[in-house]
Amino acid sequence: MAAAAAGTGGQALGRSSFSRAASSQTASSSSTASGVKLGPNGAAFVSSGIPDLDRILGGGFLLGSVVMVMEDSDAPHHLLLLRNFMAQGVVHKQPLLFAGPMKEPRAFLGALPAPVASSKEDARQRAIGPGATSDGRASDEGLRIAWQYRKYFGEEKTSHAQHRDNKQEFSNDFDLRKPLERHLLNAQHIECLSTQDVDNLSDLQDRCSTFLSKLPRKDGGTLNAGQIAIQSLCAPQCGYFGKDWDMVSFIRSLKSMVRSSNAVAVITFPYTVLSNSFCKRWQHLADTLLSIKAIPDEDKDLAKLLTGYQDMVGFLHVHKVAQTNSQVPVILEASTFSLKLRKRRSLVLERLNQAPVDGSSGPSSGSSGSCSSSVQGSQLDF
Q1: Chain centroid offset of residue 15 CA
Q2: CA–CA separation, 261 vs 122, rounded Å?
Q3: Would you give per-residue pLDDT tens digits along the chain (382 residues)?
């Protein structure tokens, strides 16, 4: 009887300890700061500023990781990713450290986009997905629900609730044609640093160390995330250009500091100015590696190969996705995505869809075309 009671007590103790652990986990989840989303295995994410990219990467940019973006020399599309990332952090009032190869880096903040005012419709379309019917039944149902809500609670409370939901959104749609409000850019938690005419990287490393020391990683409590955005780290206009080992050492140091902090560092770099060996080293040091490729003007071969080619502005390729505390890799549905502008304002990433084969020239040409494509291969991943 005593043993049974002891066993029962042990089971009760085990249940109570489990409930305490679950309650503490719930408490930590409820204390998550705005702009931070908790994932499995204790992972936390901040948004990239592009909802489609967050979905592709399995939640967003992993907190405590270094994200590198390989620039394309033909077009500055990498700035679209960098601006959306910075704008998302500014909207959530996250501390930001920006460094760029210009004399007045704070002027770059004036190009940050503002959140789309009518993002509810875009979010609803993204939630419905491409497989939904287009007969308007979902839209009518949403309108009826909104009308009922407004009838009982009034338009003022409805608009207040919508404003509160927009404020707490993890990822926003941004209007590239509209700049961010100026009072948000004059906040004290935004720091800017110029890398132009700088002989060494010690100043940038010291600024990053001081910035990250204010964002220590803690178990539990509120996650106050921060952002480090570095534009064109190895640009020729930088004074330390050509000091390859110094730049590699800086990236290693930054990666170590970011790993033990509640921050994400995004670095863009023109890989064409680096040698092949050092470019491989940079890619190896990245936790998440992306590359941007501009679309050639009026490429007739691509226009025949891809559907929606006229709406594309570039390609985004995912080379590597960060992961911690897990042995299960992130399995991507594709590695190459088209970069488009929805309504000429919001960035959208879509999988590449192959255009239907034109069989007007006969079956022989179609079969020969398929054989040639299978032999030569393609750089695009469908």
Answers
A1: 39
A2: 33
A3: 444 444 444 444 444 443 334 333 433 333 456 789 988 878 899 999 999 999 999 899 999 999 999 999 888 999 999 999 999 999 999 999 999 999 999 999 999 999 987 545 555 555 544 444 434 444 455 455 554 544 454 544 444 444 444 445 788 899 988 999 988 888 789 999 999 988 899 999 999 999 999 998 876 555 689 999 999 999 999 989 999 999 999 999 999 999 999 999 999 999 999 999 999 999 999 999 999 998 877 777 787 888 888 888 899 999 999 987 777 777 888 999 999 988 778 889 999 887 776 555 444 444 444 444 444 445 555 4
| Ranges of each domain in the chain | 32-116+173-363, 141-171
How many other CB atoms are there within 10 angstroms of residue 345's CB atom?
15
What is the identity of the amino acid at 265? A
**Which single residue is written with the structure tokens 């940019």?**
61
Q: Which CATH superfamily is domain 32-116+173-363 in?
A: P-loop containing nucleotide triphosphate hydrolases (3.40.50.300)
